[in-house]
Structure formats: C-alpha cells, structure tokens
Design a protein that fits this description.
single chain, four-stranded antiparallel β-sheet, 4 strands, 28% helix, 31% strand
Length: 89
C-alpha cells in the first residue's frame, strides 16, 4: 500500500538578512499555497470549458509535491552583505 504524504503543518519561508539591524522573515503556510494552486487550476479549467476546449489535465501530485519533501532550504543566496534564504519547514 502506498503511503500518503505527512499531514503535519508545513511552511514555506523567506528570510532576508543584510547590513540593516533587522531581518525580514515571511512565513506562508503550505496549505495556503496548495489552495491557491487548486483555485488557479479550477479557474483555468472552467475558462477552458466555457471556450469549448478541454484543458490538459494536471495531476494533483504536482499540487501536493512540496508536502513529500523533508524540511530543507530551497534557495540560499548571499551577495554583498545581503542574504536571502527560501526554504521549506
């Protein structure tokens, strides 16, 4: 039997650090990103159906792909005393 992705709370985060005295963390719950993707796919499908063209299917595994990854830093860039880190936790 195939295991489902873990259903623990997951977050996509962005942290910006630099020469300024504060850092800027932005945290987005992963379920919000998944709902935004599902809503966009739904609207694209409705628009295609109203125009009489079938929309090529997008597998739902693509929407929930980030859920199967372990916590990790996706992008980490440092240039001229400014550091930007995007990750999954």
């Amino acid at each position: 039997m195939r295991r489902l992705p873990p259903l623990r709370p997951r977050f996509l985060y962005v942290v910006v650090r630099g020469p300024f005295p504060w850092s800027l963390p932005v945290v987005l719950p992963l379920f919000a990103l998944e709902w935004i993707l599902l809503a966009a796919l739904f609207l694209l499908k409705i628009r295609a159906l109203l125009r009489g063209r079938p929309l090529q299917g997008v597998p739902l595994k693509g929407v929930f792909a980030l859920r199967s990854l372990p916590p990790l830093a996706l992008v980490w860039i440092a240039a001229e005393e400014v550091e930007v880190k995007v990750g999954l936790w």
